[in-house]
Amino acid sequence: MVGIQCVAMGMAELCSSMPTSGGLYYASAVLAPPGWGPLAAWVTGWSNWLAQVTGAPSVDYALSAMILAAASINNPNYIPQDWHTWLLTTLIMLIHGCISSMPTKWIANFNSVGSTFNIIALFIVVIMIPAAADRETQGLPRFTPSSQVWGDIYDGTDFPPGVAILMTFIAVIWTMSGYDAPFHLSEECSNANIASPRAIVLTSGVGGIMGWFLQLVVAYTVIDIPSVIDSDLGQPWASYLIQVMPQKTALAILALTIMCAFSMGQGCMVAASRVTYAYARDDCFGPLSKVIKTVNQRTYTPVNAVWYNTFIGICLTLLIFGGTVAIGAIFSIAAVAAFVAFTIPIFIRVFFVGNRFRPGPWNLGRFSMPIGYVACGFVALMVPILCLPSVTGSDLSVSLMNWTCLVYGGPMFGIMIWWVVDARKWFKGPKVNIQHQMLGREGNDGGQGESSGSGGSSETSLNKNTRSTDDAKAAEMA
After folding, report:
1. C-alpha atoms less than 13 angstroms from C-alpha of 19 in its C-beta half-sphere
2. Residue 94 predicted with pLDDT over 90
3. Which of 150, 299, 385, 434 has its CA 20 to 30 A from that of 173?
4. DSSP structure string for 299-332
5. Please, which residues bridge with residue 433 across strands?
6. Pair 364, 13: CB distance under 8 Å
7. Do 391 and 382 meet the contact criterion of CB atoms below 8 Å apart?
8. pLDDT tens, position by position, 225-273
9. If you average pLDDT over residues 400-404, what whole number do you get?
């Protein structure tokens, strides 16, 4: 929770300084040392895009699994097949694509309703589970003893308990990896340099606190963890609910979760389309960029980017036919790729820019650097942990291997080869507005409205009065 919140606050500070739909990709280009802006933007952008494009498919796959699990609970004779899950996931992806193609105002209204419902539903679930749990009918105490909740570690891996605990963070990191959405939507909201960073921090903070309470509720009420994981329902949350409470109550809570997941998947689709549009605007996708960056003249939204992501997402869900380990890779990719992209601009800001960083109205003040150090350290620790398999030695097989390092590292390796062979010759990074330039860096001569962010003449640091004047001029020019 502390590590994730530090990453969120570091990101929020960047968002306040430079609120653009390019988000992390744009921030990396602005903050990178002279000559390194395009490469920093290239790596950050592609890592973030991999996270974004896998976000909606992973959520929609989980949503489909919950819907089919509910069907199995109602009809025990029904056994979901892989093709059932794939078809339902594809249908949900298409619905989310249609919603994300609507005018911005319609999408905003849908998101407002969805966000409000998510908060209300979470409170209801946290209250209903302990109130409706029927452990006593199974000869157990109403709640699991605190000594067991806080003292016992479920042995779900071959690694030592400390590493095993860190490995469980995959669910938390994946769930908490969507708080960059306000950054990417900042160009579509008013008062963005305050509203967007505030939304980032509140999303991470409130989500983390409420998620912690939900985890406590589960820990105090779950009866048999192995049976939840290995249940024929194929969906651990549904299996847990059926285990600890009456069927009708379990289905009611599952229905709330399904509606929340639908809203979450749609939010992921919107954020991903804005990221894709921002990258296409800077020709990251090569020849396809011209088509992807086209804005629909009726809705004034990047419809082509929406459907490009939808197509990629549907293709990714074909991993369903490769088994649970294969489809599980999109969850790991979303977590690893997102936090790598989240941390690159924070790392550059902390270790390369330092006190030359020009903060926005929402900033961390003197805590900015310490929080940045914690954020970078947390991600450096967790990325290797998230790539570990659950078993080791002779028990490790192809079907039990954690393929995250290959599925994420493979595309990123190919992208770096593309950079060395060709992309470095034509990719110049995003156009950087003059008011976002970092003082005391090459290229910040204040004489042009836009810059590639990676070259030019050097300039000495300006005093506060001159800086304020330049900011006012830059705002007027913008």
Report:
1. 23
2. yes
3. 150
4. T-S-HHHHHHHHHHHHHHGGGGGG-HHHHHHHHH
5. 450
6. yes
7. no
8. 888 888 777 788 888 998 888 888 999 999 999 998 898 888 888 888 8
9. 75
